[in-house]
Specification:
- The complex is a heterodimer of chains A (about 350) and B (about 325).
- Chain A is built from ten helices and 17 strands.
- Chain A is an alpha/beta fold.
- Chain B is elongated and about 165 Å long.
- The N and C termini of chain B lie far apart (about 140 Å).
- Classes of the chains: A alpha/beta (about 350), B mainly alpha (about 325).
Chain lengths: ~350, ~325
């Protein structure tokens, strides 16, 4: 990724106290994680910290009538009227779907915009607009994440990237794309001079990036993620996918599953981690752009799918079974795995990568 | 024909009386005339004078028809004719008979019977001449038709011949062009085979020289160079669509270069080297130009999103700036 001096890059402002020092600068710029399961926007606030807004990337259509509209507004459930239908968006859609025993509709599939959901774009635009807000200055930089090309399915990231560049550009931002796993390197490997392996376990994909002093060397993705686990668990248990998601997210420890449902979740989690590691090994072994690491590198994991209990322990177990081609030091999960990608995008936006 | 004037008829009667009743052929007297066909001279002579008169009139009419043409009143008027003289065929026949009888009687050379015999023979001769004339006319008509048919046939054959000659010339020219292209293709094929052998030798040499630590065994620079050369060779070996005779050679060349290219590209892909050329990514901003001003009804403006705070990125930014050598 080249370093450019953006002439329109907004100037920084000093913040009173907070952060690392009294003279902490508040850089303009926003980070946006466009994930299959969740959308997250990160912005540096006046105190020097970060404000992150997360919304589930899902919607559910219900019958439109005045009574329903009023009820939804009273219950603070966000909705949109589209094509004569009432569309509930975000987390509320996921909750309602579980109540009614339905599956939510997903604007994205396998990490990319879904071609089957023709209603998806206007809904996503509304959600992104809500969480991103207006630009603080015209042309404020907004870095959004995109997956790398998959090594196990034939997908095209170009359309996905171009589409969101257009959406975000229309909102008044200067949109730039950054690899999802590279964003994890920016957010989690600062103390290692941004050298190491970043892994993002998302809903549709798992992305990997090996970087050397913030320069990405090898990036790739595999088309398996949280949705793949939900699909297989739902198949095994004979239930809806949204139910499987609910089981996964209610608090499971995949090292110690307590019942048949949790066993199913644990099996597919382990399979996913093993799959990612095997493909990382094969990819890193074959690439000539691999830098020569004299020191062990850290592996940082992030993404909503890595939030499950016992994830990093199972990851270390599976890693031990693989003869990895690089010396590896610490394997850890981000303290805030759900927002790590958005924060990494914010770092890139702030520095103007 | 109109009737003869009364005076003329009187003169005729007087002429007859003067010539003697015996000299006047009976044919002047009018009688019903049976068909003359197949009667013969004796039969004709056996007919009564009225019948013979009618036959004479019929013969006369046929003769006049063969030598005359029909004109409409309008045509006559267009030539400036306002009136015509009209005479009946009967009267003409009578006049001719009377004249002939008179001449013969006046000469005294022939008896009335001889005259009648002569008359019958003359009539027969006349009929024969008439029939012969008709036959000649028919023959002439048929010959004219045949001539027209032959002429049109001749024209058609001449056209076909001209087209065949042109086609033959064209085929000759094409044959010559194909022969020329075949010669060129043969030369190219030999050259390409030589180049492929040279590249294969270079590849083997490169594989032998490259150190064992490189997993793929091929130097990236060499791969790029070889792939570039292969692309040039492929461009040269592209078969011409207009040279059907060299298709087999072009196909073999294509297969050879494809195999070699596939081998190199597969090696390259494993190493992360691709021969694909990066194109500029398309801008999709125009997809949204029709949505300006379109606002969906929603309650989202009235709702506040849930936000949470996270640890700052100040340290990250500082570290990154130091790495990049910035202030």
């Amino acid at each position: 990724m080249s370093h450019t001096n953006d002439n329109d890059h907004p100037s920084s402002a000093s913040a009173p106290g907070g952060g690392a020092s009294a003279s902490t600068e508040i850089a303009l710029g926003k980070g946006l994680d466009i994930g299959t399961a969740n959308l997250a926007a990160a912005v540096q606030n006046a105190e020097g910290g970060i404000t992150v807004t997360v919304e589930r990337n899902a919607f559910l259509d219900i019958n439109a009538d005045v009574y329903s509209k009023n009820m939804l507004t009273k219950l603070k459930v966000p909705y949109v009227v589209h094509n004569g239908k009432l569309v509930v968006v975000g987390e509320a859609a996921f909750e309602l779907a579980n109540v009614f025993g339905k599956d939510t509709r997903r604007p994205m599939s396998d990490g990319l915009i879904s071609p089957n959901e023709v209603d998806a774009l206007p809904i996503m635009k509304m959600i992104i607009s809500k969480i991103l807000g207006e630009p603080r200055v015209p042309g404020e930089a907004c870095y959004f994440c995109v997956p790398a090309e998959s090594i196990d399915v034939d997908n095209n990231v170009v359309y996905h990237q171009g589409l969101f560049e257009g959406i975000i550009g229309k909102m008044g931002y200067t949109a730039r794309a950054i690899n999802e796993a590279h964003a994890v390197v920016f957010s989690e490997l600062a103390d290692k001079d941004f050298t190491g392996i970043g892994l993002s376990f998302g809903g549709g994909m798992a992305n990997a990036c090996i970087a050397y002093k913030s320069i990405p060397c090898v990036s790739f993705s595999v088309a398996r993620g949280g949705d793949w686990i939900d699909k297989n668990v739902a198949q095994v248990l004979g239930c809806k996918k949204s139910k499987a998601t609910y089981i996964k997210e209610r608090g499971v420890d995949i090292r110690d599953p307590k019942n048949r449902e949790e066993e199913a979740v644990a099996i597919y989690y382990r399979n996913l981690i093993s799959y990612v590691l095997q493909n990382m090994k094969a990819r890193f072994e074959s690439g000539t752009n691999m830098p020569n690491f004299t020191e062990p590198v850290d592996i940082a994991c992030a993404g909503g799918t890595s939030l499950v209990g016992g994830f990093i322990e199972v990851f270390r177990d599976e890693f031990a079974k693989v003869d990895f081609p690089l010396p590896v030091g610490r394997i850890f999960r981000s303290d805030d795995a759900l927002t790590a990608v958005a924060r990494g995008c914010l770092v890139a936006a702030a520095i103007g990568e | 024909m109109a009737r003869t004037p009364r005076g003329a008829r009187g003169r005729w009667a007087r002429a007859r009386r003067a010539a003697g009743a015996g000299c006047v052929p009976q044919s002047l007297k009018r009688e019903a005339a049976p068909d003359r066909e197949g009667l013969g001279e004796a039969g004709f002579a056996a007919q009564g004078p009225r019948t013979r008169m009618e036959q004479n009139v019929k013969d006369l009419k046929q003769a006049l028809a063969a030598r005359s043409h029909t004109a409409t009143l309008a045509e006559l008027q267009s030539r400036g004719r306002r009136s015509v003289r009209v005479i009946r065929a009967d009267d003409v026949a009578q006049m001719i008979e009377a004249a002939v009888a008179q001449a013969i009687a006046a000469s005294g050379l022939m008896s009335p019977q001889e005259v009648e015999e002569l008359e019958n023979k003359s009539r027969e001769q006349f009929q024969m001449l008439l029939e012969r004339r008709q036959a000649e006319l028919n023959e002439l008509r048929n010959a004219a038709e045949e001539l027209n048919q032959v002429r049109s046939e001749l024209g058609r054959v001449r056209e076909q011949n001209a087209a065949s000659i042109a086609e033959r010339e064209q085929l000759r020219a094409e044959r010559d062009a194909i022969a020329e292209r075949l010669r060129e293709s043969e030369l190219q094929r030999e050259q390409l085979i030589e180049n492929v052998r040279r590249l294969e030798n270079e590849l083997d040499r490169a594989q032998a020289e490259t150190p064992a630590t490189v997993a793929s065994g091929v130097n990236a620079d060499l791969v790029y160079r070889l792939m570039g050369e292969i692309a040039e060779l492929k461009a040269k070996a592209a078969p011409s669509a207009a040279a059907p005779a060299s298709d087999a050679i072009a196909g073999a060349l294509q297969q050879l270069t494809s195999t070699f290219t596939a081998k190199l590209e597969s090696l390259g892909r494993k190493m992360g080297v691709s021969s694909a050329v990066e194109a500029e990514a398309p801008s999709l901003t125009a997809l949204f130009k029709h949505e300006d001003g379109v606002k969906l009804e929603s309650n989202m403006d009235n709702l506040t999103v849930k936000a949470k705070t996270a640890s700052g990125i100040a340290a990250n930014l500082e570290r990154l700036k130091k790495l990049k050598g910035g202030s």
